[in-house]
Specification:
Layout (H helix, E strand, L loop, with lengths): L14 E4 L8 E4 L17 E2 L12 H20 L1 H4 L26 H7 L4 H6 L5 H4 L7 H36 L1
Helix pairs in contact: 1-6
């Protein structure tokens, strides 16, 4: 005994609605066959599919400014680190003060842990016992090395720019501040 199954619509019953950004009126295109006239508003017509929400035109500036600030902070961190003065062996010594600590000290091609601590790296013991609350903010801008910086700065624009276009500056700023407090 065969159960009653819904009958799929024939191709002539399926229509697609195209939303044009150019200001043209909506046109209904059948999947197969000749274009039928537009259905009247009072009569139920065939199944119509519409395109989802378009992203609003928004020039994202918050996320690119975060990327620039992070890169500038990394350069400043490497300047403060001054590997040639504090270590006998440095990687990329031709960079002078900006050269990296040896792989034994930092395999991510970055500053020493002492430099990161001096600039405000998050140290749970210090935050809990000594209460330097400023470390909760400064640790967000520090990177352990070039590989850490590249991974973050390549993923931030991919995810962040899309979020900024979708939600706008205000909502993304509120979200970012909420994440900072967590």
């Amino acid at each position: 005994m065969e159960k009653d199954r819904p009958v799929p619509p024939s191709p002539s019953d399926i229509q697609l609605r195209v939303d044009s950004k150019r200001g043209a009126t909506n046109v209904i295109h059948p999947v197969g066959g000749v274009t039928p006239p537009l259905p009247s508003s009072g009569v139920a017509g065939p199944l119509v599919y519409t395109e989802g929400k378009h992203f609003q035109k928004w020039f994202p500036w918050l996320i690119p400014s975060f990327v620039i600030a992070n890169v500038v902070m990394f350069i400043f961190t490497m300047y403060v680190n001054n590997c040639p003065k504090n270590s006998a062996t440095c990687i990329a010594r031709f960079l002078g003060r900006l050269s990296f600590q040896p792989f034994k000290e930092n395999p991510l091609l970055g500053p020493s842990s002492d430099t990161l601590q001096k600039l405000g790296a998050l140290d749970v013991g210090k935050v809990v016992h000594e209460h330097p609350g400023w470390r909760l903010l400064t640790c967000l801008w520090l990177h352990a090395g070039l590989f850490h910086l590249l991974a973050n700065m390549l993923s931030l624009p991919v995810i962040g720019i899309r979020l900024e276009q979708e939600f706008g500056f205000g909502m993304l700023s509120k979200l970012w501040l909420f994440i900072l407090m967590c």
